[in-house]
Structures are given as structure tokens and as C-alpha cells.
Amino acid sequence: MKVKLIDVDNRLSIKYDQINGIHNWGDDNCYPQLISSLASRSVTAKQCIKINASNIYGKGFNFTQNVKDKSNLIVNKKELNINQLLDVCSKEFAKQNNVFLHLNYNALFQIISVDLIISERVRIGEADSTGYSGKFVVYDNWDKKKNKKIDKKDFVLIDRFNPKPEIIEKQVESAGGWNKYKGQILHLSTDYNEIYSSSDLDAAIIPSYNEHGIDKFLYNGIENGFIGVKFIHTKPFDDEDEAREFEDCIKKGMGGENAATVFLIESKLNSDILKDEIYVQNIDSNIDDARYIHTERSAAEKIRKSFDIHSILIDDSDNSIFGQSGALLKEAKITQWEKKESIRNKISDAFQLIFSKFHLPINPSNDWTITPIIKIEKTASNESNINTI
């Protein structure tokens, strides 16, 4: 994994790039790529994102629970239904704290498709004197992995979300007609005071890199080191057949599916003493797992805290499983669900706004409540009776 670790104070630097007409996302304009890379390689970060995404998605929208035929809830050309769109949005929010929804319209100014564009591909365009950016730039090579330079001719400019027919009409005219119109993007964020929100992983970028680095180091030590290696020194054999016969005998005696690696060395040994005629040398590895246990645990703890997740929900040690009460586990689950309420509200409000203008009646009830993964019942004494559903 090649990751550029930027100085802590500069990695989320937002600067306007006049050449490309965008607001750079991070000092090297690859902050979302960095987050995505670490999130896929850090075991703890990956688990934290999964937990938070689950607490955003819940069990999907309430109105879909009794709908058997989900084909009437398709929302885009990928044939994702409304709950599947919620699912991808939940995962993107949990990882990046930003969601970019791409909307396409028909000539009646109705929304005909809604899809997610991953954060790695979207950058916010030039702002006017009031700070308003009316364009997004979508491109698939900000990290220059496909080509060594940014090619502006491959930029796709998409207008910011505004469902007013007169606005859409002007955008269509500016694009050169409906066949050239690219639609609009609605940007959801956890912090609307910032151009881009920082990821929950931001505070634990270094620990995430360390966690992956330790695993990689230990793997390289096992794969490329000298664990289980033996050197056997013998006097020169008379011919190749004699040497091959000796090697076959050694292999038969190795056992353990030939777990060890043996190097046969023919040396000029001249002695009547048997132990001097055949000498076996063990090469021991200098890898000591205990040296890295503290660093690994410290990294995992910092990552967990950066995602604001209770330790009981993520620590799968025997002490965590059997040493904690069921009531505490349930309380931790309900607390985690409540922590994501603001994000669920952002998504629900956005979906209500978007699909009220959809060309098909996806949700006639207009109730965009998300079904919780847990159930809370209030007793007369105002105490919570928590049940896992």
C-alpha cells in the first residue's frame, strides 16, 4: 500500500486550484483516497465503519418493510432499490462523512434516477463572491494512477442541486440541450461549515497506518524471513544421484507438510568424526510478536475512539464477551444508535426532498423514517427497556 502520509496540519488543507477550477480535497487532493485505502486495510477501522454504517442504515425505511415486490422501488439504471441506495449512502457516510447524490431529470423537470458518486471522484468547483459553488467536477484520476497528469478534457461538470424548474431550464440551456445535460449533485455532509467534512478516521490516520504496517511487517517476516530454516552442511557427494537420494531422505523426515525450509550445502569437510561430516545449522527468526502487542492494541484503541464506538461493541476478546453483562451490551447498542441520529435525519430529509419530485410514486406515505435495529420501550418510571430485534 503506497500512502502519502501528510503533515497533520496540512492533510485536510482546502485550497482552490485555479488551473483545474476545483477546491483541492487535502494537501495532495487525495484525502478521500487516503481514507478509503486505510479503511480497507486497517482491521479496526473496517470494523468501526461497518458498525456505524449499520447504525445509520438500521433495517431500511419503514415504508418498505411490508413491500414484498421491491422492483417497484427501483431508483436508477443500476437497478438499485430505495433501501439499497440507503445502504450505499450509509457506508459512504460512515467512511467519508460526505455523500454525493447524482440526480437526473426528464423534460418535465422530474427526477428519473438517483445514484451515489463516491467521494474519491468528486471535487467542488469554483465559488462565487458569496462562497457559493455551483458546479461539481467528477473525474476518475485525481490520484494520477491511470495517467501521470490531470486531463481536464475528461472532467464532467455537474450542477449543484436545485429542483426549481426555471433553474433546471437555465442549466439545460447552458449545457446545450437535454441530451448534453448531466443533471445535478446533492452534497450531504456532517459539517456544512466546511467545504468537505473530515472523516471519523482523520484523528486516527497514523494509528490506522501503524496497524496495517505491523501486520505487513509480520507477514513479510514469515514469508521472506528465516522462520524454520535449516542449513545442512555435508561433504561433497560423489555424483548427482547420491545427492538426490540424500535430499529425498531429508524431505521424508521433515514432516509437517514440509513446513521447514532446508538448504543443502556441500562443503569440503575432511574428518572421521560423523558430526563433522554432516552439520545441521538452525536459523531462528528474530520476530517477537510480544514486542508489537502494545503498539497494535494502542492503535486499535485510538481508531475505535476516533469513530466514537463503545469498546464492548468492537472488542471480541474473551473478557469482553463473557465479562460484560447483557444489559451493558444492550445499553451500548442503543447509545450507538442514538449517536447516528443526526446523520439518519440528514439522509431522511434528503430522500424526502428528492423523491417528492421523483417521476414515480416511490413512497406515497412520504414517511422516510428509518427502521431501528433495536427497540426502545419507555416505562412509567421513564426507564428504558431495551430489546434487540
How are the SSEs ordered, and which strands pair?
Blueprint: E1 16-17, E2 22-23, H1 31-41, H2 43-57, H3 82-96, E3 98-105, E4 111-117, E5 122-124, E6 135-138, E7 156-160, H4 165-175, E8 184-189, H5 205-224, E9 229-234, H6 240-254, E10 261-266, H7 274-277, E11 278-283, H8 290-306, H9 318-323, H10 326-339, H11 341-355, E12 374-378, E13 384-388
Parallel strand pairs: 7-8, 9-10
Antiparallel strand pairs: 1-2, 3-4, 3-8, 5-6, 6-7, 9-11, 12-13
Helix pairs in contact: 1-2, 1-5, 2-3, 5-8
Overall helicity: 25-40%
Count of β-strands: 13
Tell me the series of helices and strands, N- to C-terminal: EEHHHEEEEEHEHEHEHEHHHHEE
Quickly count the helices: 11
| Oligomeric form | single chain
The main pleated sheet reads as:
6 strands, mixed
Report how far the terminal alpha carbons are from each other. 40 Å
How many discrete domains?
2
Mean pLDDT: 82
Characterize the overall form.
Answer: globular
Strand percentage: 15-25%
List the uncertain runs: 1-8, 379-389
By helix and strand content, what is the structural category? Answer: alpha+beta
Q: Largest sheet, order of strands side by side?
A: 4-3-8-7-6-5
Describe this structure in words.
This protein is an alpha+beta fold and 389 residues long. It folds into 2 domains: 1-223 and 290-389, no CATH class; 226-283, no CATH class. Helices cover 37% and strands 17% of the residues. It has helices at 31-41, 43-57, 82-96, 165-175, 205-224, 240-254, 274-277, 290-306, 318-323, 326-339, 341-355, and strands at residues 16-17, 22-23, 98-105, 111-117, 122-124, 135-138, 156-160, 184-189, 229-234, 261-266, 278-283, 374-378, 384-388. The chain has a 6-stranded mixed β-sheet with strand order 4-3-8-7-6-5. The protein has a 3-stranded mixed β-sheet with strand order 10-9-11. Strands 1-2 form a two-stranded antiparallel ribbon. Helix 1 packs across helix 5 (205-224) and helix 5 (205-224) runs antiparallel to helix 8 (290-306). It comes from Flavobacterium capsici. This is Phage portal protein.
